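Help wanted!
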Amino acid sequence: MFRQNIDGLKALLEKKEITPEDAVKAFLNRIDSVDKDVKAFVTVNVEAAIEIAGELTHADRTGDLWGIPIAVKDNIVTRNIRTTCSSRVLENFIPPYESTATERLIGQNYIMIGKTNLDEFAMGSSTENSGFYATRNPWSLDRVPGGSSGGSAAAVAADECAAALGSDTGGSIRQPASFCGVVGMKPTYGRVSRYGLVAFASSLDQIGPVTKNVKDAAILLNAISGYDRCDSTSVNIDAPDHTSMLGNDIKGLKIGMPKEYFIEGIDGEVEASVKKAIGQLESLGAEIIEISLPHTGYAVATYYIIATSEASSNLARYDGVRYGLRVEGDDLIDMYMKTRSEGFGDEVKRRIMLGTFALSSGYYDAYYLKAQQVRTLIRQDFQKAFGEVDVIATPTVPTTAFKIGEMIDDPLQMYMSDILTISVNLAGLPAISVPCGFSSDDLPIGLQIIGKHFNEVEVLKTAYAFEQSTEWHKRRPSL
Amino acid sequence: MRYEAVIGLEIHAQMLTDSKIFCGCSTKFGAEPNSQTCPVCTGMPGVLPVLNKRVVEYAIKAGLALDCDISRHSRFARKNYFYPDLPKGYQISQYELPICENGHIDIVTEGKSRKVGITRIHMEEDAGKNLHGSEKGYSYVDLNRTGVPLIEIVTEPDIRTPAEAAVFMRTLRSIVRYLGVCDGNMEQGSLRCDANVSVRPEGADELGTKAEIKNINSFRFVEKAVEYEIKRQISVIEDGGSVVQETRLFDSEKGTTHSMRSKEEAHDYRYFPDPDLVPLEVSEDWIAEIRRAMPELPGQKKDRFMREIGLPEHDADILSEERDVAEWFEHVIKEGADAKSAANWMINELLRLVGDEGIQVSESKVKPDQLARMLVLIDDGTIIGKIAKKVFSKMYETGMEHGKIVEEEGLEQISDSSELEGIVDKVLGSNPDEVERFKGGDHKLMGFFVGHIMKETKGKANPKLVNELIRKKMGS
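Answered by r_m:
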């Protein structure tokens, strides 16, 4: 049963072949048997999940996710359930409130199966920066699952849940989805409420689904999207039914292939798989057009100034005064310094320092302001491209999953892992990663499809057409 | 050498909204510590601010009253610094694009009116309160005040004397209270003032080095603190030294200022636009709507009291400074009382009584229509001034109608001529010499007789009737 996705479980539940209790037990057993190797979870919500499954079993069958066990990235706040951000500073933090995204899942009667591991405060591309332990790639346990939503992607790939929520600031859903051979979608900035998503970089963060197939991504996105008055940056427009155009053909669809995304340094097998995938889209009737996104080369630098600047401010609240870790000191300043020294890992400290520097008086104009200007140029690149094409197709990541420890001492090399996903966040666009092949050593490769603002429907339609014409999504790691 | 001071003020005014600026918590003063908090104002992980529209309305009101340009497009920024009373590690404020700019206030000192420029008004959230000195050596943090809305009003360095600074603050207080956007209470901290002070040789164009004075928490101290600081800076210069740019704290007990931190120790607040809040767009329609609902302001009221009612400036000043006093006064006149005697009665009696009791005029038990009715009766001679004062203090104490008090206290006028005749006879009979002189033409003695009769009747005799009776008895 744990092989099931959302759509499959729904069918079984509807036919009463299984109960929510059966579903939860199947996944809890699966977690029990494989998570000691995968280490996807920070907290498994055993008792509460069983209790809720019991209640649902005896209640009316209402809600789009009735009885479906779904995992939640541990930077999304869940009431009365420990939410750590995989940081020592929040190791024992029990939130008094619920995030809007999970509140909406509760409204659809989902079952929160557990909280998944991440790079501390979502800062990283491998989940090695977790304050607790690294998560492993289910396809090859000595490799990283990607990050920062590595726990969510690994849990979905290892069938430890039907689906999961992740968050994406610079590729943190799509990159691990690509590494783990699952579907991951970053919605348009403003589509899903950020209320209760622990902020890394507020102008870039967005919650999205990590699923076993495209249809599940659409179902899960339906449940979490829409305006929320608690988030001033959520956009007050009606969210469509994201499943509505699944199955429509893509004849005549104009797909852009940005030349800047097929560059030197990209893995040969990745490039071949993605080009083959784009060929497949063409054979399904799409028109492939080469386009240019000329400011792509500035995206990583721009991102690391904006994201770290916002992070340096967002993470100031972890000061040991009100909640979370406090390390006593001789005086107030000493307490602050000890708490933050012990509470944060190296990558988080690195980014806080970078951001603090970029915002300092005398440097603000040269860094933060300049980065905002370049961000506008990057956004305009896409605007121009979308004058010509309907969606854009690229590789999600330049490589397949790398080995644990391989890049941990080379942060700059690690940052390059997000080079193809970052621009999408800077422009606020929706994008999906779908499995499109495997390397010779059996590691998954992802195809990224980028759409226009608030046009997730088109992205999902394209991804679905591709997925249904291939078998890649049916492969499972042997665990 | 003669010196001139250059003074600019930065005023924080707490907005009188029911809820906080970025969450729904109550702003009520004096509640149990940390009882008016929620995940948002305590800076829990993952929370987001949502702007309270009423705060924007109040800031615009203040901006219009201070003749500012209202920004159609403004923005919130984060001011980053660590302090236990600041839960997020940053204060949400406005920096580059404030809601109001380029205004002014007219202040009047020594009969002369002067403009003091307003550089800007911006909105921000208040911080909490640290409480020190518990027995266990802990400090505590109360976050009830965290997120209470403030506006910060920054003036141009247009103020020249400590007296002007004090008048400015009183004028501003009066305006924000009229608008109902702030209660103007400096002692409780709902109106706070920092002063930037520098001195320069009289006639010089260049500005001297300034010091910022903080912790000025009463109207009295505004003048004192600035005065002390000016003297201090002059004596530093005269001793051959130079003024250091720094932040200084006012010590109200000693009446002095002392250094808190130097320019080098100043924070780098690393302001940047808050990505959690979208840019604030204000429509012309909304500004117009707020403008239409603006009350008459103290300056306008004062002018009108002088022009239309003919009050002397001093009286107009007193009666226009507080909105509830002005409205009380206007109500008395509307009920038909003579404006000048209404002004006298309010200034000399009512304001003295409420001042002694420490309450607002609007809280007093006696109501404007009651005073008006009494004034009408004084005017037509039915009540004598002296007794009226006594009756009025009773009205103030009890809120009872004057007629009822007069009756209960036995203060009715004796208007019964048969009763009065006996007393007149008695007085005339015991002063034969004066009677002779009166009859001989010394009519000034009328006052003498009336006085005696009043004494006999404890002031209750109807003076008109007494007059008539005396003349009749004298046969004149």
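OP: Thanks! One thing I noticed: Chain A touches chain B through 44 residues (CB under 8 Å).
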